[in-house]
Amino acid sequence: MDTRTLVAVSAAALALGLLAGCGDDAAAPAGPAAGGPAPQATGEPWYDEVTPASPGGSTGGLGSPCPVPVSFPLADGWTAKAVEPPKGELAELLGEALTKRGGTTVRCEVDGRSAGGGFLRIWAADSPTVTPRAALEGFAAGAGETVAGQQFRDLRAGGFDATEMTWLATNPLTEEEESRNWALAVQSAGQTLVFAVNEGLLAERTDVLPAYRLAVRGLAKGE
Length: 223
Known about the structure:
globular; 20% helix; three-stranded antiparallel beta sheet; alpha+beta; disordered N terminus; eight-stranded antiparallel beta sheet
């Protein structure tokens, strides 16, 4: 991968939020997150001691800003937005770098910047037969980063059996900067969905994990 492409892909994470469409679906408060496992592994790498955020709405299902076959609660102050494919010169430069990753396509983004958080992104596997673990492995490897320290665990996420993965990623442009990533995959209505968050220059684990935990522990079948 040449330097121009690496720069473009690195810029994708920052630009993705700008491509999110309108459509806040946080009007109806969600109930308490159900089905979440009790904390099992404190500290690195899972940080189960970080508790879910307070709910402030919900999204998911057909016709919502997050058109996936599940519903999930939104953290208070976080908003769901559809992600639109890039157009014009940006599309020519980045191609599918903003919307495709390791055999998945992004469906929506939950933006927590106004609440002091980061982003939660929901991706759908392109193959309907891929297993949750395989989807996670492809997703982690699909960003063009150096991936290390992968760990997996099976758990219950709301109404679904799920597989969760955590790993460290190093961007080749900033080789000294490692970021911790978390992602959880479930299968619903013939789709494998990946919920993903990560630490970064602008977000720490305490910024992103509460909203992520709330969402995945409150997963339910969408309409």
